[in-house]
């Protein structure tokens, strides 16, 4: 019945001059399936969102909608009726309230619509995508307080983040009408069409590409929970899987190939690939190994380097300061993630964090889900 009435509405709108083609009708049908409207008002909002393209179309839609549904006094099937036919449980809505709303006259429905357009509190609520109640509760909790199942439940929320680094000029070029350089090869190639006369000079400019993202993650005992959360973020967030990822505690381990899988598999394989998980911390020696094996050879050059660690150095803090100075000279920006900086009054007065702090462009906490935004912004920021 609902499909027949929806088709009748589209046909009536076309007859009145509204350009409801196959594309709009298909969008309307998809919205009806997704929303499963229980009342004429809910169906109206589906029609308003998919069948109109200009504010001037709204008046025509109102008139035709009221003629097709309001004047005929048609009641839409409720979820409870649909559930009875399909054998599922009915929604816990009041049937009396649904009947009263469905039987409301066109004038009353029009008042609800106008209130909704004005944004009045008495109008129909417009649903917007939000985090679920459980995720909202976990979003304000420190990652160290979450068990593995609670952390895994944040995967979908982490997928909403997009990790993007600043752009840089590459060595490759592309054609551009306003380019600063002349493309002589393309100019001469085009001249073959005009008797070898270069009638039009072709121009080009350098392509832009994202800077490389390199992540060095501390997986020592004091950082175990936050390390898992940060690795899960890299696997889940858009663009995070493109990063070069290393873990360190007492030794350096490259995990880039491991983190290409889904979050659960990636974390399990990361634990197997890094034998020093939950071990001690030798940040300075790990940074020196990274720079000598990968960073100085090109991986860290002009890259955004993110170091995830609480700064508890079991080795020589002076060595850490020296290696951080080398890294800062090579990298575009160095972002340090230290969950302990979220504590009020935190100051890096001693140890590894004191040695590393002067060489960091930004220090963020990213200790819980609702604090990850500052890390994403720090990665995307340009160097000042």
Automatic annotation (TrEMBL):
Region ranges (Disordered): 79-127
Basic and acidic residues composition-biased segments: 107-127
Top-rank taxon, per record: Bacteria
Pfam families (alphabetical): VWA_CoxE (PF05762)
Cited CDD domains: vWFA
SMART domains per UniProt: VWA
InterPro entries named in the record: UCP010256, Uncharacterised_CoxE, VWF_A, vWFA_dom_sf
Sequence ranges assigned to domain VWFA in this UniProt record: 210-377
Name this polypeptide is given: VWFA domain-containing protein
């Amino acid at each position: 019945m609902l499909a027949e009435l929806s088709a009748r509405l589209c046909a009536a709108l076309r007859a009145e001059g509204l350009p409801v083609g196959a594309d709009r009708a298909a969008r309307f049908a998809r919205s009806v399936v997704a929303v499963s409207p229980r009342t004429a008002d809910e169906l109206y909002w589906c029609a308003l969102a998919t069948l109109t393209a200009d504010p001037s179309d709204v008046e025509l839609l109102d008139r035709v909608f009221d003629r097709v549904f309001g004047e005929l006094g048609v009641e839409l099937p409720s979820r409870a009726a649909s559930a009875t036919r399909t054998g599922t449980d009915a929604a816990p809505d009041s049937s009396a309230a649904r009947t009263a709303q469905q039987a409301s006259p066109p004038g009353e429905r029009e008042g609800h619509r106008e209130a909704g357009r004005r944004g009045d509190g008495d109008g129909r609520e417009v649903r917007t995508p939000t985090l679920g109640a459980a995720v909202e509760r976990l979003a304000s909790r420190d990652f160290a307080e979450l068990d593995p199942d609670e952390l895994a439940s944040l995967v979908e929320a982490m997928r909403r983040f997009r990790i993007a680094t600043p752009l840089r000029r590459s060595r490759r070029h592309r054609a551009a009408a306003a380019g600063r350089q002349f493309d002589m090869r393309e100019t001469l190639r085009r001249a073959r069409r005009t008797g070898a006369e270069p009638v039009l000079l072709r121009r080009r400019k350098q392509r832009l590409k994202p800077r490389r993202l390199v992540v060095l993650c501390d997986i020592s005992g004091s950082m175990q929970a936050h390390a898992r959360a940060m690795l899960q973020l890299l696997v889940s967030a858009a663009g995070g899987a493109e990063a070069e990822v290393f873990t360190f505690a007492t030794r350096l381990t490259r995990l880039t190939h491991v983190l290409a899988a889904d979050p659960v598999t990636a974390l399990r394989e990361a634990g197997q690939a890094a034998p020093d998980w939950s071990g001690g911390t030798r940040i300075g020696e790990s940074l020196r190994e990274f720079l000598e094996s990968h960073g100085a050879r090109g991986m860290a050059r002009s890259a955004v380097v993110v170091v995830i660690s609480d700064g508890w150095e079991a080795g020589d803090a002076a060595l850490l300061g020296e290696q951080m100075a080398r890294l800062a000279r090579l990298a575009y920006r160095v972002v340090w993630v230290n969950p302990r900086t979220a504590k009020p009054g935190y100051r890096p007065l001693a140890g590894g964090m004191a040695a590393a702090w002067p060489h960091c462009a930004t220090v963020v906490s990213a200790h819980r889900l609702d604090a990850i935004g500052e890390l994403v912004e720090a990665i995307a920021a340009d160097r000042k």
